[in-house]
Every structure is written in C-alpha cells, then in structure tokens.
Give the backbone structure.
Amino acid sequence: MNADDFGFTRDVNEGIIHCHRHGILTATTLMANGDAFEHAVALARETPTLDVGCHLVLIGGCSLLSAQRFPTSITELVKALARGKVKPYDELRAQVERILEAQLTPLHLDTHKHTHLLPAVLEAVARLSQEYKIPWIRRPFDLPSGGDATLKRRLIANLLHLLRRRRFDATLKRYQCRVTDYFAGFSLTGYLTTERLLALLNRLPEGTTELMVHPGFLGAELMGARTRLKRSRLVELQALTDPAVRDALASAGVALSGYRTL
C-alpha cells in the first residue's frame, strides 16, 4: 500500500502518516521539490516503520537545479525532452540527492504522473536505481479494474499495456531493477472508495501487488493547491483506515508488506 505525493502539502503529509498509524498504508514516496518537503522529512523521521521512497517529479513544481518551473503536462514534457530543455537524469539525480541529504534511505522509486513510461525518463530512473542501490521501481501497468473505474481511465490503462510494456520491461531487466508482480491504482485514482478497495482486495492475484493511493486530510493547503485530487484524498484516507478493510485483508488471505520486507 504505497501513497504518492508525500511532501506535496502538510495536510497530505499528515493524512499519509495517519493512514500508516491507524490504517493499512505501508509505504510512501517523497517529492523532493514539494512545498512541504521539510515537514514530510520530520514526519518520516518520527515514523521509522513507514517505508519511504522517491516520488520523482518532472511535471509540476520547480527544478532543484535551476528553480525554473517544470512543464505542466505530459505533452509539454515530451516537447521539452525533445528540445533538450529538460535533462531527466540530472533533474532526478538532484531529487534523490536531496532526500539522501535529509538522512532518509529511500527504498523505491516512482514518478509523478508516471512519466517514467517515457523512454528517456525510464532510462534515467533505472540508471538511478542501479547507481544509488534503490532496488524497487514502480511498474505502472494496472490490474484489470472491472467496472470500478471510469471508461476513460480503463481505456488509458489498456493502451499503456499495449504501447509500453515490452520496452519498459526490457529496460528494467537491463539495469537489474526489481518490481512487484502486479500494480493497481491507476484506474482508481480519484475514485478509490471503501467499497472499491474491498472489491479490489477480493480479486488480487497470487504474488506481490503494489496498490498506489493518494490519501490526505482536506485542509486549506490542499484546497489551494494545483491538483484535481482534493476531496478524493479524504475519501481514500477513510477507506485506508476503515476497520472493514483490515478484516477483508484477513479474509482474503492478503498479507501487508513494505518494500524492506519483500
């Protein structure tokens, strides 16, 4: 159970910690260029049982190298990469370094908006995994979501499977990166309720699955932030701390794990 966007705002940070202490969340990934980075670092030091990784950012927020703002969409990022205006390895290396300088030991890597589906970004992320000995990388090809997600999200997820999977897997194999057997959460981003989480847990395949979530408290900082995920974060927080979900895990024979114990 891995929460994105640690470091985005303080209310998101506090929601993530709450879901770990009072719910089923086992891991999170930290945005080194997030407005609430220092707050997240302090919370992570107080919560050593929470696995922390790097949520690498090339869309939204500012560069740690130049203080220039990153592109605001995948389309803009593709253009910036083609023109050499964004150098993914240099930018993402600076983010890993900032997390290490905060005396945290990242265990896993993923990217904001799944930008490592782009070949140039994937190459940079896999290289950083090898160089910094951060073994786990998100493999963001969604499990079938049944009827729980919107048609648009299901179609995008299926298209990613067709276009990227073979090249993605070959790159990770070349750099000897580790991945979970399965991934879930893309199609349910912004739509993850208790009922949908229970349905997902009941159809998990044998093996290891990373479930990506986006919990948070709905405070003033989140309400003022540039993100479509606002009220949905509180709904996810409630789902991840619902006693019925923990009971369902036991009934389905699903064991919670962090990256350090895999």
